[in-house]
Design a protein that fits this description.
Elements: H1 3-15, H2 21-48, H3 55-102, H4 113-120, E1 128-133, H5 138-153, E2 157-160, E3 172-176, H6 182-194, E4 198-202, E5 220-223
Parallel strand pairs: 1-2, 1-5, 3-4
Antiparallel strand pairs: 3-5
Helix pairs in contact: 2-3, 4-5, 4-6
């Protein structure tokens, strides 16, 4: 080992950049050996003077044993603390990695060409549709604006209604008036095909999501938060519950 390598190792040694197992073992053995050497020298000198087993030499003898045992136990205690702290760090890193793998990247929804054409294909089937977006959700409002274009293209009269503060829903929810028509089923089928989370309900349940007066002559499409098909934790947003089918 040349001088540069020795200098580098010494620098890493004092900065904690080397594997601690070997330095720990060498240092603990050196400490025990040093204590034994001191004790042996004192006892040897006492034996030469003809006073081997006196109170002072007995103190030295037992003191060396206690010092060596305490040094070893201190080393093991320090190693136990280090292992415990490392296990905590490893557990935290594991949680962070798990969360990073599960965190949902909720990018703004963009209506694709296929989705646009599917919605526009209901042309003439639905004369009137109402749209509502989740209050406080800018992405919901932006995506709802995208839905207006294919609905206009299908010659459907689109009316925007106000949402209820605090009404939160993952995905899209469609409220159908009674009686339900075949065209409503077509609308539901189109949206189910186009989007991962679509739920349906009767128009009577719309009061939870839509400000009055609530129309009864058209379906109401509530645009809620962007969410994938399967909700996992942690969820970024207003803690929605998966829709009940």
């Amino acid at each position: 080992m040349n001088g540069a390598a020795i200098s580098t190792y010494i620098g890493q040694f004092f900065s904690g950049g080397v594997d601690p197992s070997t330095p720990h073992l060498v240092l603990i053995l050196a400490a025990v050996a040093g204590g034994l050497a001191v004790g042996a020298g004192i006892i040897w000198e006492a034996a030469r003077g003809g006073h081997l087993w006196t109170v002072p030499t007995a103190c030295v003898f037992f003191g060396v044993i206690i010092e060596a045992a305490a040094t070893i136990f201190l080393f093991e205690f320090d190693e136990g603390i280090s292992r415990h702290q490392q296990s905590i760090v490893d557990a935290q890193q594991s949680v962070i990695r798990s969360q990073n793998n599960e965190i949902i990247s909720l990018e703004p929804r963009i209506l694709t060409k296929d989705q646009y054409e599917d919605i526009a294909a209901i042309k003439g089937e639905l004369p009137k549709i109402g749209l509502v977006w989740q209050v406080g959700c800018i992405e919901c409002e932006t995506f709802m604006a995208q839905l207006i274009l294919p609905l206009f293209s299908s010659k459907t009269e689109v009316t925007i209604y106000g949402g209820v503060n605090g009404a939160v829903w993952p995905g899209i929810k469609i409220f159908f008036p009674h009686p339900e028509l075949a065209s409503y089923e077509q609308l539901y089928a189109v949206f189910t095909k186009a989007f991962p989370v679509v739920d349906r309900d009767g128009i009577d349940s719309a009061k939870t999501f839509v400000q009055p007066p609530i129309p009864t002559d058209r379906p109401l499409i509530f645009v809620g938060e962007n969410t994938p098909t399967t909700l996992v934790r942690p969820y970024i947003g207003a803690s929605p519950q998966p829709p009940v089918k």
